[in-house]
Specification:
By secondary structure, the chain is α+β, with helices and mostly antiparallel strands. Helices cover 13% and strands 26% of the residues. It binds zinc ion.
């Protein structure tokens, strides 16, 4: 599915259910944050049209973006789900 670049405001509301091209790296929380971390899952999300990186944390409080909180679209993109039980 190819998308053409559209002219228009760059910073309009982002309400796409299936957002932009995205790269997701799932990381080992203990390797990144230390063995004592309470974070259960960690992911790094980058959108092709952004220069920033979203760090997504999943812990007992929920899933949230380090910069933008639980409302960040990168939370959905990360695929992390704290409710999913780990063996
Ligand atoms: Zn974010």
């Amino acid at each position: 599915m190819k998308r053409r670049k559209r002219k228009g405001p760059r910073f309009g509301p982002q309400i796409d259910l299936f957002p932009r091209e995205v790269a997701v790296d799932h990381l080992d929380p203990r390797a990144v944050l230390g063995a004592r971390t309470a974070v259960r899952q960690l992911a790094r999300v980058r959108y092709a049209d952004e220069t920033i990186t979203h760090m997504i944390f999943a812990d007992r409080h929920g899933v949230y973006c380090q910069e933008h909180g639980p409302q960040c679209s990168a939370v959905l993109s990360s695929g992390l789900d704290v409710k999913r039980k780990q063996a």
